[in-house]
Amino acid sequence: MSWGWLIFAAAFWAGAYALNVWLANSRLAKYRAVRIGVPVIFGITILVVWQGLVRGLNVPLVILPAPSDIWLRMTQSVPTLWEDFVQTFVKGALSGYVIGCGAAVLTAILIDRSKFLQQGLLPVGNFIAALPIVGTAPILVMWFGFDWQSKAAVVVVMVFFPMLVNTVEGLAATTRMQRDLMSTYSASYAQTLIKLRLPAAMPFIFNGLKITTTLALIGAIVAEFFGSPIKGMGFRISTEVGRLRLDMVWAEIAVAAIAGSVFYGAVALIEKGVTFWHPSQRG
Amino acid sequence: MKNIVPILTVVAAIVVIWYAAAIPMNSQWALDQAERAEVELSTGELILDTWSQERPRLPAPHQVVSELWGSTVEMKITSKRSLIFHGWITLSATMLGFAFGTGLGILLAVGIVHSRAMDMGVMPWAIASQTIPILAIAPMIIVVLSSLGVTGIIPKAIISAYLSFFPVVVGMVKGLRSPAAFDLDLMKTYSASRSQTFWKLRLPASMPYLFASLKVGIAAALVGTIVGELPTGAIRGLGARMLSGSYYGQTVQIWSALFAAAILAAILVGIIGVIQRRTLTRMGMNA
């Protein structure tokens, strides 16, 4: 045990906490820089306390590596991490996400004209969306083989129903007045759909797209626990855990976290551009 | 219940598609077997065979149902092959984790609502953490804890607690903030203290939000437990049934474990739904 690290961690925590309380309650709190600064300080504090506790208490690497160990591992194994990232994220998650969300939007538009199908499919879709769909992973791995196709299939199944439910809800989001206006213009069904209802559905569609970004990544990673070629984030996590190389595991987790956040952020950015007219975006 | 006809139609359609899909999925195996035995299969025999194989690629619905029935009702609960036994293992870990995750989530939400520093510091991370594939750390938690000598129900419960934690935090913060400005003003004119405002206004107002996030949370907790049962090569629990099924090619076993998990999830969400309706009705919030 080394007291220096522990005292440093405690002092840093106390200092950062005091700074954050002061910043949050001061008149500076309305500035954008402070609004970003406070959570950043909080995040840095966690990293410093983590580092301090691990070093100070001499926690062995096989239980919890220090952030510096993880960073070192990340910088040393960039090629491996990149290979895993491409295998899991680009090939598995992203292709499954595009196929699943695309299919769901198309299905929603197809069943749009049938009240009967909607009344039947929506409760079933809502029900399936709450189920542990990750469990289909072993079945789909058996059907589509070990490579990324099976991961993409798991992702398709996982994102389809949340996306379908959101899109159907969105297509119903126009008001009577708006639809009446379209019909006074003698707009056809297709024109109403393209010019009024699809744009009006965009906030709902993007809500679905944002929820499913996380699901896509989870699906692709968990499916690899059931079998994969010798690359991929899920594969690396489960094998490196077995070899007790936890710094590598944390490095993969960091990559997954960054990929997940960037993915979400990218969708949110597109949303901002597409639904610029919506009250929640004008603010 | 006017939706019952469309729902049943959709479910019936799914079953029909399922039976139809089982024919091409399993026919290769049936044809191979017939060729090896040097017999010709008529179309009818072929179809019947695809619906009754022992290790089909896609088991027919009645096979899954009979396996479910056989491994729940007809088997002793103590048996290692009983799905009730495995389901109970999974359920107990889920409930423990869910209770912890929900409790901690509500506490953190109360802290966030009452402290500006926590709100500004923690809330962005709580939201950002929902974009992170948390399940990826499940295997690590299991292995690290088992190297510390903690095994059994606790590691799985930690994973499900972690998964149900964040939806509850985000939902509860929204709920505790849901009273409108004039509601808060009214409390102020009563010269209510912070704790009175909390107990009499904020907490009751947050109930609809709490139940909505509890439903998300318990589904997430169940998924967490199932995934937590995968990496240890665990021998008990629904996740372990799926994994051993996928190792030994026992597709019917995987499907029945999957359906058992689905039924469990549906029951849990349903129970919360009933509690929600009862509570909100008694509170006069169920319009």
From TrEMBL, chain A:
The keyword Membrane applies. It is found in: Cell membrane. This is ABC nitrate/sulfonate/bicarbonate transporter, inner membrane subunit. The chain crosses the membrane at residues 6-24, 36-54, 89-111, 123-146, 152-172, 204-228, 248-270. It comes from the Bacteria. The keyword Transcription regulation does not apply. Its main location: membrane. Pfam families: BPD_transp_1. It comes from Maritimibacter alkaliphilus HTCC2654. It is a multi-pass membrane protein. GO terms for cellular component: plasma membrane. CDD domains: TM_PBP2 (cd06261). One of its GO terms (biological process) is transmembrane transport. Keywords: Cell membrane, Membrane, Transmembrane, Transmembrane helix, Transport. Residues 103-274 form the ABC transmembrane type-1 domain.
TrEMBL record, chain B:
SUPFAM superfamilies: MetI-like (SSF161098). This is ABC nitrate/sulfonate/bicarbonate transporter, inner membrane subunit. The chain crosses the membrane at residues 88-113, 125-147, 153-173, 209-234, 254-275. The keyword Cell membrane applies. Belongs to the binding-protein-dependent transport system permease family. Coiled coil: none annotated. GO terms for cellular component: plasma membrane. InterPro entries: MetI-like, MetI-like_sf. Keywords: Cell membrane, Membrane, Transmembrane, Transmembrane helix, Transport. It comes from Maritimibacter alkaliphilus HTCC2654. It is a multi-pass membrane protein. One of its GO terms (biological process) is transmembrane transport. It is found in: Cell membrane. Residues 83-276 form the ABC transmembrane type-1 domain.
